[in-house]
C-alpha cells in the first residue's frame, strides 16, 4: 500500500468518525435531561389541570403555533391551533367537568430545546346535563423551548380502543 493510499484511508476514516458523531445530535448529561424532564412535566401537569377545569384560555398559554405543525384529534387534522381551540370552545358546555388519569407517561428529551411526551390514560367527563362518559386516550406532544418557556408545538390525541 502506498503512502498516498494509506493517508486517503486514514482521512476518510477520520471524516466518517467526525460526521457520525455530529449526526447523533446534542449530548446532554443525565442531570440536564432530568432537569428538562421536570420542567416539561410541570408544564404538562399545569395544562392537564387546565383541561380538567375546561379552561381553554389557560391551555392556549402553553401552545406556540408559529410552525403551523398541525394538531390531530381523533382522526381530524387541524392546520392551525386556533381552528382546533375555537371548535372546542364552541362545544364547551358550562358546568362541564373532567378528570384525567394516566396509565403511562414518558418524557423523552431529544435535545436541549425539543422534548417528546407520550401518554395514555383515561378521562371521565361529566356534562352539565348530568350525562357522563369515560374515554381512553393516547397522546403524543412535542414541546420546544421558546424564549425560555416550554411550549407545545404539535400534538396528536386519539381515543384508544
Given this structure, which CATH class is correct? Alpha Beta
The span between the termini is: 64 Å
The average pLDDT is: 87
The quaternary structure here is: single chain
- List the helices and strands in order: HHHEEHEEEE
What would you call the structural class? alpha+beta
Could you describe the 3D structure shown?
With about 160 residues, this protein is an alpha+beta fold. It has one domain: Nuclear Transport Factor 2, Chain: A (Roll), CATH 3.10.450.50. It has helices at about 5-25, 30-50, 55-60, 80-90; strands at about 70-75, 75-80, 95-110, 115-125, 130-145, 150-160. A six-stranded mixed beta sheet has the order 2-1-6-5-4-3. A hairpin with a 2-residue loop joins strand 1 (about 70-75) and strand 2.
Features:
single chain, Nuclear Transport Factor 2, Chain: A, 161 residues, 6 strands, six-stranded mixed beta sheet, alpha+beta
Amino acid at each position: 500500500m502506498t503512502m498516498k493510499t494509506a493517508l486517503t484511508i486514514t482521512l476518510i476514516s477520520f471524516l466518517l468518525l467526525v460526521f457520525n458523531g455530529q449526526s447523533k445530535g446534542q449530548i446532554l448529561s443525565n442531570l440536564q435531561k432530568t432537569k428538562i424532564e421536570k420542567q416539561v412535566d410541570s408544564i404538562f401537569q399545569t395544562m392537564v389541570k387546565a383541561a380538567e377545569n375546561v379552561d381553554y384560555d389557560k391551555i392556549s398559554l402553553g401552545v406556540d403555533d408559529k410552525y403551523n405543525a398541525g394538531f390531530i384529534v381523533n382522526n381530524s387534522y387541524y392546520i392551525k391551533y386556533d381552528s382546533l381551540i375555537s371548535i372546542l370552545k364552541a362545544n364547551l358546555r358550562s358546568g362541564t367537568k373532567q378528570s384525567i388519569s394516566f396509565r403511562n407517561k414518558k418524557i423523552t428529551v431529544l435535545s436541549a430545546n425539543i422534548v417528546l411526551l407520550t401518554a395514555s390514560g383515561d378521562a371521565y367527563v361529566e356534562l352539565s346535563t348530568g350525562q357522563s362518559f369515560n374515554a381512553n386516550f393516547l397522546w403524543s406532544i412535542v414541546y420546544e423551548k421558546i424564549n425560555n418557556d416550554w411550549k407545545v408545538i404539535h400534538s396528536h390525541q386519539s381515543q384508544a380502543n
